[in-house]
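Why does residue order matter? Because the sequence determines the fold. Keep that principle in mind as you read this record.
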Amino acid sequence: MRTASKKSGFHFKFIHIVYNTMKKIILPVIALALMTTACNNKQQDLTPGIDVTNLDTSVSPKDDFYQYACGGWMTKHPLTGEYARFGSFDKLAEDNREQLRQLIEEIAKRPSEKGSVEQKISDIYNLAMDSVKLNNEGCEPIKADLKRIADITDKSELAVLIPELMLSGVDPYFSMYVDADPMNSTEYLLQTYQSGIGMGEREYYLDEDEYTTEIRNAYKEHIVKMFELAGFSTEQAQVNRDAAFAIETRLATAAYDNVKLRDPHANYNKMSVDELQTLVPAIDWKKYFATLGLENASNLSVSQKESLIEVGNIVESESLESQIAYLQWKLIDQAAAYLSDEIGAQNFDFYGKTMSGKEKQSERWKRAVGSVDNSLGEAVGQMYVKKYFSPEAKERMLHLVKNLQTSLAQRIQDLNWMGDETKAKALEKLGTFYVKIGYPDKWRDYSGLEIKKDSYYENIKRTTQFEYAYMFNKAGKTVDKDEWLMTPQTVNAYYNPSTNEICFPAGILQYPFFDMNADDAFNYGAIGVVIGHEMTHGFDDQGRQFDKDGNLKDWWTAEDATRFDERAQVMVDFFDAIEVAPGVHANGKFTLGENIADHGGLQVSYKAFKDATKDAPLSEKEGLSPEQRFFLAYSTVWAGNIRPEEILVRTKSDSHSLGRWRVNGALPHIDAWYEAFGIEEGSPMYVAPENRVKIW
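Structure:
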């Protein structure tokens, strides 16, 4: 998950995540038999899973289901100063972070052998925690890099400088990454991605509403202050600000918006390096790729072609002095989190306070744990699962996944809007899902990563260089389908259409998503819908364009594709009409994939739940029927509080609907929800049957 608008330099753009890295299991759908997640005769002995203190019973579920289901949770978990939004995901992530802290601090206190994983974890953590050293150093750790940028005397040197900076974690102009070729999913392909703007989303540079204008002006002031903290005079800082902001605005103007970024065909432009040289002649691409260690690169995909063409125009037309200022700004911006408290505080003042409404930074230990987790994720993950993830939890998850696959297969077979030819291919795709649960079977090797005691910033550079080398080494090779794109301790899940896989890390397989002691009503409503959500991503408006092998290939009949689009448009129109803040509406097209996945997840998991318990129906518990507990478990997953500023940030930047609308926007399209809570015509949440979304 992103915080504020700061984006990672690594991009897996068509991976769908539940909430913006095991063994590969192939499950033939038709052959699967339904099974309960625990023996039926034991279900009645399990807990209901629902904490009734999370409810707000002063509100009728017919009027505002989100408030009814989550109001008590929201009262119990008010926003603290360090959060712009705090929900069930964040609560679990906090718990996980505390577990990681205990693991890491135990290691950091002990002597360790040089070159060992323990030494690397210990040194990164201790450097991040050493405020005295960081404050004494000030901006000194980046002085050499600032001088390296200032010393260039000709634009031709940018062909080497830009990739050098990228390898250090800076993202000027654009980014480069390696992922499966969308048209040939068995082979890794080098790909570009638009980047280089500090505020993250192009709308912050282009929209003219009052709020966005205030953010833009604050950003300009922030740039000046950061240059001053890096040792520049106020006059020079202002000159640099103007130059850097002008270049970022040009990049934003040429960038694809978030809706176009979701179109896989529009973002695929495979060409040779020679063709790239003709397309963007301002950069010597042979030098560029050689600097990245990609001397033998022969082809790539220019993901957003117009954006990269504009990069070439900027290199040609903007003065060398302006580009030096821009590159220095990108360096300062990226390095801020690893320098002195004064620099870090100013960085937080803009990205945390101004943009998202936060009141204070996270405690230093949390940031330090985050750095270790980012730098040595699978090494930490290996320790995490050994201590905190049980084989029993994995086995129960496997049963759930099988049941959800069977349920989705049956729903596909029963669709009245899809023809037999498309159904057959949809079932084939579903039957070849790769399922990853808990943790990978093979772990990353970190022996090539060197961690020293020189400076926190230099070690972050080394870890970034190590990650890029790992990624670029894949270019042109066969895709490794066993690789994980989330660490085991991550509180999230994903579907990757290029490998047709669904992944559920150990980190999310805990309450309130998964409870070994709770009955099926709870677990199907919570983690079951998460599983169904990820499965449905294989058939949302993006995922449906990839075939069973992960290739961007049309496997639909024209008639079925048209009928899908008509049904999806109902979802777009419904969410477009939602006012998330005064005068601000949700973006139904941008959030379409996630909204379809929520809808499909609910439908598929509810059917699986009913099928799994049909021979031994569950009883009422806590005054709630099993059906009611199913929908309450789902809703609690999205419980949370959010600041007004963050609502606006996420509406611009997040392909997921806000938590409130993942409940109040999703449930009115589920017939079973109406039956469970007696929702009738005249209720504020009532949607007439003919106006409800009907896809998967």
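The chain has two domains: 21-39+47-83+391-442+482-691, 142-338.
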